[in-house]
Write a structure and sequence with these properties.
The chain contains 3 helices and 13 strands, in the order E-H-H-E-E-E-E-E-E-E-E-E-E-E-E-H. It folds into 2 domains: 161 residues, no CATH class; 44 residues, no CATH class.
Length: 221
Amino acid sequence: MIENLSIAIDYFDIEVTDAIGAVPAQVSLDRCLETGDSAFCANVRRDTAGTLHLLNIAPDGGLAGISEQNVNVATFATKGVDLNITYSLDLSDMGTINFDYAATFLDSLYAISIPGDDKVECSGKYAGPCELPTPEYNHRFLATWLTPYDVVVSATWRHVGETDLFGLEESRGYLEDSMETRDYLDLAATYDVNENVSVRVGANNILGGCAGKYSCWYWYR
């Protein structure tokens, strides 16, 4: 309906089962006794004397004991919406400006490391089992000016939404209660000297988008 405008909305709902994970020996033993689940009991191998500690050889000739090798027991899942909008603006003798907006609205991102465990929800959280921040909303907005002078200039606005410390139900006034919203502006330019040589310069985060009580290293480590 609008020339040079494109809008794409993608809903994703992905679950990965039987993912690779390691089960601690004590957990395998406890869960096998409690549930009889073969996923745990298969890790417990008695020796030829019927024990877990007297001998190292199982009846089939393999090693006895409780295995902690990687097994396919974990579950990972994520759900949300991706939005992408592109638009091209004709400036006549001044070239063209292309706009590209890509955003993710995250509804859920969780993991279950061992069958029977509670799921660990990481949407909007950071630290602990969630490790790096996983905001519920983030976007990248790119504007590219294709000039008629063999020069291409681009600006990128990166937005990272706020996240809360994992496991903290309410603010306690600590510095690490939450990671504030972050906005970064990157600039770059490319000049085609000739058909074989191009010169490119650029700078990231030119506005120093780490204002507030937190440092930037977390986002760039």
